[in-house]
Amino acid sequence: MQAQEIVKQLKKMANKKNVEGMARFGINPKNTLGVSMPKLRQLAKSIKKHHKTKPQELHRIALLLWESSIHEARILAGLIDSPEMVSEKQADQWIKDFDSWDVCDQVCLNLFDKMPFAFKKAKEWAEREREFERRAGFALMACLAFHHKTAKDLDFIAFFPIIKKYSRDERNFVKKAVNWALRQIGKRNLALNKKALATAKEIERINSKPARWIARDAIRELSGMAVQERLKNS
């Protein structure tokens, strides 16, 4: 199963109505086929099964899929690539190509948070100026918070000053990612919950509309009974 064959399969699954629906949720319709995530996951599973003993081949196919510039092919690339083979150069290049929040989040969720240098990149990317590059930094923080079970609290505490710094960013896709990172870190354990709430209260005092939204939304969830009970019983 080669990259060209995979692209042909994706094009056969194209759905114009889905593209219209995706656009209403802020997904960039450019180079988008309208293939659903369940279908992409199913295809990814088939590709990985076909190449289960060939991580280098999966990596090669992922790079070719990314180069196609097709929205769904790029999500698929993140689903099948071998994280141990992803270089910093590749990761830095891919985030420059992000042009939609779902591609950004799916690649961070399925691939980038498994990279050995993921914590380093989360900090670096959050400092980037372009909207989806900065979003990638905060999305990666969020993904690490709920996927990286063995990480130390200090690894996440280091994110709080960056979260506070960019809580003023008015761009919608950045603002939501900053909020996502803060909430996910605050749901790891009671100690991080306490520190996340303290950070949220600091952010709430900033004279900024996005900062106040980020803080109040995070405080509401992190201090809520559901989160507090789960953390106390974990």
Notes on the protein architecture:
There is one protein chain. With 234 residues, the protein is an all-alpha fold. It folds into 2 domains: 1-85, no CATH class; 107-234, Serine Threonine Protein Phosphatase 5, Tetratricopeptide repeat (Alpha Horseshoe). It has 15 helices and no strands. The N and C termini lie far apart (44 Å).
Helix-strand blueprint:
Layout: H1 3-12, H2 16-24, H3 37-50, H4 55-67, H5 71-80, H6 88-97, H7 101-110, H8 118-126, H9 131-147, H10 153-157, H11 160-165, H12 172-186, H13 190-204, H14 209-222, H15 225-233
Helix pairs in contact: 1-4, 3-5, 4-5, 5-7, 7-9, 8-9, 9-12, 12-13, 12-14, 13-14
Quickly list its features.
0% strand
The main β sheet shows up as: none
Mean pLDDT: 96
Under the CATH scheme, the architecture of the largest domain is Alpha Horseshoe
| Extended strand count | 0
Number of helices: 15
Rg over alpha carbons = 19 Å
Low-confidence stretches: none
Structural class, from helix and strand content? mainly alpha
Count of domain modules: 2
Fraction of residues in helix: over 70%
Shape label: globular
CATH superfamily of the largest domain: ARM repeat domains
Strand content: under 5%
Which class of the largest domain in CATH terms? Mainly Alpha
N-C termini distance = 44 Å
- CATH topology value of the largest domain: Serine Threonine Protein Phosphatase 5, Tetratricopeptide repeat
Helix-strand string = HHHHHHHHHHHHHHH
